[in-house]
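Progress narrative, Year 2. Work on Receptor-like protein 12 from Nelumbo nucifera advanced from sequence curation to structure prediction during this period.
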Amino acid sequence: MGMRCIRLLHSYKVAVEFLVTLFLLLLRFDGCQASSSSSPTTTTHRCVEEERRALLQLRDSFNFPNGHALSYWVGDDCCKWKGVECDLFSSTSRVISIDISYERQSEQGTWYPNATLFTEFKQLQTLDLSGNKISGWINVQALCQLHNLKELWVGGNNLGDDGLPWCLGRSLPFLEEVSLWGNNRGPSGIF
Ligand SMILES: *[C@@H]1O[C@H](CO)[C@@H](O)[C@H](O)[C@H]1NC(C)=O
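Result:
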């Protein structure tokens, strides 16, 4: 009786040990899965290379012919650059916000931004170009291709009545805010 009881207890112990080991193995396997999938995640949570190049192109055009603004835009991960914000909750981490307000240096004079430069940023939601002596645009219609745009800040520039294209109101379904305050030549009144 006592012997049988001990044997039963023993097999019970073996079974429990087996289950615990199995459980630990499964846990480990899970951990493996998690850590092997987390390393590519951390690398994708970085700047999209085309967008990094587009930002540098934007800086060149902003500084043309000999300015030195935005000189702090250096390094591989443009999501960490001042004034740049990426969508870190999506796997592509595309740029969602560009704020280069009040960056144009006084000696640089007026700026005519090439709107096509912004079309590389497919998920752009906020664009702040306030206070940069903008007197007009190159390819202004390209602004209407920024389909995810919610906010456009172009106050404190020298834009006239034709400062923004009419197509903005029709083409940009998410556009909530357009700021044109303090433009020397008056707001355009497209809304
Ligand atoms: C505007 O930018 C686009 C895209 O980089 C470029 O292809 C085009 O030549 C530029 N236009 C002018 C007039 O600079």
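The chain has two domains: 1-44, 49-179. The beta strands are 84-86, 95-99, 126-128, 151-153, 177-179.
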